[in-house]
Amino acid sequence: MTPQQQSPRQQGPRYLTNTEPALRHGWHPVARSRDVTDEPTAVGLLGQAWVIARLDDRIAAFEDRCPHRLVPLSAGRIEGAELVCGYHGWRFGASGECTAVPSLGPGVPAPRKARATVPWAVAERYGLVWIAPREPFAELIDLPEHDGPEFDDIWLEVASTRAPAGLLADNFLDTAHFPFVHAATIGTEAGLVVPPYTVEADGDGFRVVMEQEVANPEDPGVAAGIRPLVQRRISTYVYRPPFMLRLRTEYPDAGITNTIFFCLQPESAGSTRIYTRLLRDDLGGDAARMAESAAFEQAILDEDLALQNRFALPGLPLRPEEEVSMRADAAGVALRRVLAAFVRRAEAPTRTPRSSPAGDVPSIAPA
After folding, report:
1. Is the pLDDT of residue 355 over 70?
2. Which of 63, 148, 276, 281 could link 117 by a cystine bridge, Cβ 3.0 to 4.6 Å?
3. Is 10 exposed, middle or buried (0-12, 13-18, 19+ CB in 10 A)?
4. Domain 144-347 listed as CATH 3.90.380.10
């Protein structure tokens, strides 16, 4: 049966929106670790409200509503290993169990239904807090440079945009737009033609390696007249569904390695949060140069968002007939195929999800 003969249901959704139910089977960043303090933190994910908290230094997550009168649990407080509702003082442990209902009196157990809803798993890794609402189809992306002593790292401020997460992931993987969108930063005429490259399966996602000629104005050798502005760049993209990406760029002539950790939080139908971490081996711990590096990367991101915010699409197109793709779009085509398969897997009627025993919520320790 050809795609044209299939029903819309068989083909899957036309667009991958930020509230697509299948995305509940993914790992999603919801906050930077350093932004989660000793107070409950309200976050949004896939159009749903959540609250994250540190309970005795263990990260925990709950739907942001008390099962009693549905008041936001983010309006409560943390006491030791428990989140206390600010309305009637109900107490909840990390796995959602209600440990006390003050109005019942001392020693009276809470009703069995008095449980806060928790996700399949919560994790803290690579400076981010992650939530998987349901059993995830893919592992968390890794970040080898995280433990490399030669790398300095700095976070960009968390950005918010109305652009859908799928379009932002596609933009991150696209290099053909550099000469046009990034003419003021990294785009040059030398990058007009995108050389052929291959997309290779890698774990749950894929990997792309490509060579290009791009501007490298951050190389001190350019200002010193030792090296030209346009230099050879080897880019290695790693993607894990739904919205976890890593780009390692190497400039052989300058001896510079630069990694961008880029992860997206589909907050709601009209909002996506962007987490960007830079790791570089050429800054030598120089705080001023680290700040300059972050400012330059922010300028590149701002150029992207200026265009992405003008899209009128509700999400990333998933059906091939919606777009005309070129050879240079191989990474974007792979992204669409992986995400379309992700959605089909979630919709498969034979799927029987594993469930966690009551009171036993999986979690992943910080790395």
Report:
1. no
2. 63
3. exposed
4. yes
